[in-house]
Amino acid sequence: MKDQQPKRALPSSAEIQSFRRRHAEDPTYGTAGHRWVEVVQGLSDDFATRDILDYGCGKQTLAKALGWAITGYDPAFEEVGETPGPAEIVVCTNVLEQVAAERLEATLEHISSLCGSMAFVVVSTARSSDHATVQTLAWWKERLAEHFDVVHAQEIPGDEAIFLLAPPIRIFIGSEPRMWAAEKVLCHSIDKHTTARTKIEVMNGTRDSPWAEWNSSSEEARSRTTRGEAPNASAGATEYLNYRWAIAEHCNFRGRAIYFDVNALVLGDVRELAQGPMNRPILTLTPQQTGVMLIDCRAVGKLREWPRIAEMQNGGWGIEQYVEALHRQDVFGLLPSEWNCLDGRGYKEGVTRLIHFTDMSTQPWRPYPDRITYQNHPCPEMERLWFEYAADARENRRFASDDEPLRAISSVDVAQIATAG
Questions:
Q1: 9/91 Cα distance (integer angstroms)
Q2: How much is the pTM?
Q3: 169-415 has CATH 3.90.550.10 classification
């Protein structure tokens, strides 16, 4: 999937003509890229990739200094003026200070959307007639932090500032309509603990999204969803069962992504999970339990046997077939045990990072009271925790003013459980 550049990020025709005149009149203009060849080579080695985009490449001196092909983008040159696709590493040197103020936010958002693993940015802080924005390192750091996780920021001689930037952590949540309360509480629990920027996408096929019209786990699951009925608890047939297998391609086979089933509660910092070591392309709870996954999207894209989204949408594979295809290629590794607490078993306060409510008959939010006979959770502490987070989510306006009161999603009063000892 090729990211589309926001229109506001595009320079105007007048700006492009101005850049072209400057390039023609000044042979040294747009030639500073080569200065950073050692840094870029180091990043290439660190991330084991040559998938690099030079955003605002000018006369392409970085590519020439590297000695191997990278992608260049600069609207001042027709040969590299086409809107680029994403890359594992994005380099943007001495460009942003020349971007018109009204386009700066959109440009930063565009760069962030193209970045798979890391961005290297250099801005000039010097006053110049060429610079639309003249600001300090602190100002640039604040602006960049609205779109990236700032890994490193440093002033260097020559009135310049350099930045290493990680893109937001991509998080995908498999869900369905009656899980709306669980969605909001899960998202709140992620936000509550994270120290990194995140980008959360809820995968729900009934909405206007890439997941609409999906051939889900079974005809039964699809028909039940259409009728607003509960999934088959014994079969575990949920509408979103197979969306998770499309995540790597949805991320353009770049960077890492996290997947959560909606019936989870996060108690730790997802940065720890996202940036932890990986010894396999996919880390799971167990090879049979894929309700939580850390995915190396680039590694999945290199698998010799893996269907593309177009095939998945209409292929009708069940989850067992996807898992078997991955097993044959030795894809699965195990997540740290603290991210694997099923229904409260083995829960340790301060250690457990995630609770997975797998038993549909004891899920605290009780999404299908007309179809499932619910029971109290066998571990009262787990139910209390979920409702504590639900009350906190409501307090933090995670639930819109026109949502039903939280107590309407369960026969148990939220405030009473949230304050229970």
A1: 17
A2: 0.83
A3: yes
